[in-house]
TrEMBL record:
The keyword Transmembrane applies. The chain crosses the membrane at residues 21-42, 71-89. Its main location: membrane. It is a multi-pass membrane protein. It is found in: Membrane. One of its GO terms (molecular function) is sucrose:proton symporter activity. This is Uncharacterized protein. Keywords: Membrane, Sugar transport, Symport, Transmembrane, Transmembrane helix, Transport. It comes from the Eukaryota. The keyword Transport applies. One of its GO terms (cellular component) is plasma membrane.
Amino acid sequence: MLQTPCRALLANLAAGDQRKMRMAIAGLSFFVGVGNVLGYAADSYSGLHHIFPFTRTKAGDVYCAHLKSCFFLSITLLLTLATAAAVYVK
């Protein structure tokens, strides 16, 4: 979902410099791969709902709480990184 806007932001920040663009795309590709591995690892960790105990409700089972915890973690990470990019990128 965020790969295309990130590539557009990197193209704007590189400002036509091919070396910066190559390095930025390489870094983005690296972090996309790391995110894929971490996403798979988060799903394989069955105790994730214990980190966010408020996700466990009477209406849902453990798997529902686990899924809500994964979404909560990704939203928190997305907001943190978007805020950091807005603050540090000129």
